[in-house]
Amino acid sequence: MSPSAWAALADPSRRAVLELLLERPRPVGELVEKLKLSQPGTSKHLRVLREAGLVWVHRDGQRRVYGIEPQPMAELDAWLAPYRRLWEDRLDALERRLDETNPKEDKA
Amino acid sequence: MTQATYQEIDGRPAIRFERRIAHPVEAVWHAVTEPGELAHWFPDPVELDELKPGASMRFDLSAHGMDPMDGEIRELEPPRLFAFTWGDEMLRFELDPEDGGRACRLRFTHFLSERDKAARDAAGWQVCFDRLDESLAAGGAGAANTGVTPAWREYYERYLAEGMPSGAEIPGQA
Has the ipTM of the complex gone over 0.90? Predict the structure, then answer.
């Protein structure tokens, strides 16, 4: 991933855009509505994401439809993987410990 | 289930995990702040002078054949916020009651060091090289058209100069 892709990902609104696009490609209007951002604000985030190579755009008649570029997302995933493995495993161990020492007080 | 997200907080790369735990905040607080409890789940044994901001911590890394690592409590608001340095990284636990206090939302943040930031920026290249090596090992047919650009070759040669093991040939290079 390029440094610009990391910078693009650091913004919470842009991560929200990516989350919506992970579900399916969406036209700009739908993103504006879901994100509750202004049209110019949304367009600005989409431009940053596109310039960073994280999303693609297609023209569909009058609409512009955006979608996820899979390769950078796969690279992000590869980079996160060791941290995720470490902490998910450790947090599972934390929950097991709590289950042992604090039996659930479910009604009998 | 946990959701892991990449973020930058105050310009620092950080990885954030969030999960619901079916135990009250107080029980989770105990499990994340008491060395005797940490021993049951934290990656390494922890020594903690006392539970107050600025107190020293020590992490025993002997299981990995490494010297101990120092830490210091940076944020402490019982029973909801606990953060401490872990070598040149920082770990933060945030707890919030859920389901009328019967459960708890745990937000855990691992702030990485500057060293990791550098590695992060290099990661894309590393991934590229992994793929290059894979396709070369597979006969090179796939790599020929994926663009061994001058920039790529420069990075590749730098990695080689640093001793990255590779017996693979670069397509188009005799």
Answer: no
B121–A75 CB contact, under 8 Å: no
Q: Looking at chain B from residue 13 to 42, which residues have their Cβ under 8 Å from any Cβ of chain A? A: 13, 15, 17, 19, 21-24, 27-28, 31-32, 37, 40-42
In three-state form (DSSP H/G/I as H, E/B as E, the rest C), the secondary structure along A88-106 is HHHHHHHHHHHHHHCCCCC
User: With a threshold of 0.80, does the pTM exceed it?
Assistant: no
pLDDT band, residue B174 (cuts 50/70/90): very low
Convert the pLDDT of each residue in B50-71 to its tens digit.
999 999 999 999 988 889 999 9
Q: State the Cα–Cα distance between residues B41 and B39, nearest whole angstrom.
A: 6
Q: At what angle do helices A28-35 and A12-23 cross, to 10 degrees?
A: 120
Single-letter code of the amino acid located at A95? E
Query: Are B110 and A83 within 8 A, CB to CB?
Result: yes
C-alpha torsion B41→B45→B51→B55, nearest 10:
-140
A-chain residues near B120 (CB < 8 A)? 6, 79
Q: How far is CA B125 from the centre of its chain?
A: 19
Residue B83: band (very low, low, confident or very high) from pLDDT cuts 50, 70, 90: very high
Go through the domains of chain B in sequence order and give each one's CATH number. 5-161 (3.30.530.20)
